[in-house]
Amino acid sequence: MIYLDSAATTAVRREVLEAMWPYLTGDFGNPSSTHSLGERAATALGEARATVARLLGARASEVVFTAGGTEADNLAVKGIALANPRGRHLVTTPIEHEAVLESCDYLRRHHGFDVTLLPVDGTGLVDPEQFAAVLRPDTTLASIMFANNEIGTVQPVAELSAIAERAGVPLHSDAVQAAGWLDLDIRRLGLDALTISGHKLGAPKGIGALVVRGRLSLEPVLHGGGQERGARSGTENVAGAVGLATALTLAERTRVDDAHRVTALRDEFIATVKSMVPDALLTGHATSRLPGHASFCFAGTSGEAVLLELERRGVVCSSGSACAAGSDEPSHVLLAVGIEPELAQTAVRFTFGAGATDGDLQLAAAAVLESVLAVRRLTPEPSGGARPPRTGVPAT
Ligand code: PLP
After folding, report:
1. Of residues 104, 297, 317, 323, which has the active-site annotation?
2. Counting runs of H as helices and runs of E as strands, what totals does the chain give?
3. List of residues 6+ apart from 256 with CB closer than 8 A
4. Ligand 1 centroid to residue 147 C-alpha, Å
5. pLDDT given at position 388
6. CA-CA distance, 374 to 109, in Å (whole number)?
7. Which residue ranges have their beta carbon within 6 Å of ligand 1?
8. Do 282 and 374 contact (CB within 8 A), yes or no?
9. Which superkingdom is the protein from (predicted)?
10. d(Cα 251, Cα 233) in Å, to the nearest integer?
11. Of 10, 76, 187, 266, which has the fewest CB atoms closer than 10 Å, so is most exposed?
12. Which pLDDT does position 321 carry in this prediction?
């Protein structure tokens, strides 16, 4: 099987599992326990925190381990907005992950926040001038994702954070998809908060982190025993934290070379797909995009049907019309970049990791051609009225 769905999730790396193993077995203690088992767990947790902090340009006290990207995004948006009394205005973009969009909407519905959705252009990019223009004296937080999960577009984060800083507005960035590919040093980038998630980079599902610059206070979302310096109650996932730190360390060692090599593979894959299916529409930005990310709309198909054909040919990826959570709405990301709802139903996303090979991608491109042709042969013209309106969003 050729796995081209790394943006949905990745396998746990062997070295990660090996690093975690002791904390799932012999050294299984609760870091809050005062006996030696607990102390060993607390030490491992502290080391994992220090490692994550170092790799993200933060202090150890600025790292909050969470149960993944969704929780870290919730904590960033709700936690910063509710704890920092600048005002009740939030700025975000219409292409954010639901974890950010729904958190903003929660604050709007339950706490009277005003939410500005900063438009993006047809490639998914935010306009820095427009960003500067929407910031207000009562803007409490801006949250702009580093790289989009559906279309791969990478935002000019350093430029945006300089603007936010001049306006005195904290900037959070969801870097779940960027982690492992791009430099995420929050001090170098000038960011105030950043989200990462383990399962997108070779650590298990259910571990993530929010890094928050010390000058910002954080209202907890989970209340309880006061772990994570009160920011996130709940017995710590020690093995998960060790796994996340190990995965980040491994990714950082080869990150620049991997990004370079995989970008070249991506560009070749995109060019091959476009030469085989000339009307394939690449969604997202041509160059400011994640290394291992290629997403297309194939007019006259259904993304879901193409996905099934691809799987029959041994290629696994995401359809822009797979119903992630039983949703039958067209992808909010594709609509926000101006793609018509009908075309949005034909989206297919190919995402690959550092292990991608030219041979696999060539096989995948050939399978794309066969699959698109197969679906087009079977799909009546829209005027026939028989094509089912299958819509939704890919596994995030
Ligand atoms: N943010 C982005 C951009 C994502 O792609 C995902 C993936 O699901 C998330 C947040 C949520 O992360 P998690 O699956 O760890 O909750």
Report:
1. 323
2. 13, 13
3. none
4. 11
5. 41
6. 46
7. 68-70, 73, 97, 99, 145, 149, 174, 176-177, 197, 199, 208, 396
8. no
9. Bacteria
10. 29
11. 187
12. 45
Burial letters for 361-394: b for 16+ Cβ neighbours within 10 Å, e otherwise? beebbebbeebbebbeeebeeeeeeebeebbbbb
Looking up tokens 């080869």 gives 254
What H or E segment, with its residue span, contains residue 140? strand 139-143
- For residue 86 the two structure tokens come to 């600048």
DSSP assignment of 323-367? BTTS--SPPHHHHHTT--HHHHTTEEEEE--TT--HHHHHHHHHH
| Residues contacting 303, CB < 8 A, separation 6+ | 297, 319, 320, 321, 322, 345, 346, 347, 348, 390
Q: What is the pLDDT of residue 85?
A: 77
Q: Which residues of the chain have pLDDT under 70?
A: 320-328, 381-396
Tokens of 393: 């969003």
What residue owns the CA closest to ligand 1's atom 6?
A: 396
For 115, the token pair is: 């939410």
Q: Which positions ≥6 away from 355 have C-beta within 8 Å? A: none
- How would you list the strands of the sheet with 293-297, edge to edge? 281-282, 293-297, 347-351, 318-319
Residue indicated by tokens 């993304």:
303
297 in active site: no
Give me 1's structure tokens: 């099987």
State the Cα–Cα distance between residues 213 and 164, nearest whole angstrom: 14
Q: Which residue has the tokens 């096989």?
A: 363
Separation of alpha carbons 70 and 80, rounded Å: 15
User: What is the pLDDT, as a whole number, of residue 384?
Assistant: 42
pLDDT for the residue numbered 324: 52
d(CA 270, CA 285): 12
pLDDT of residue 328: 63
Nearest to 273 by CA among 303, 301, 295, 299: 295
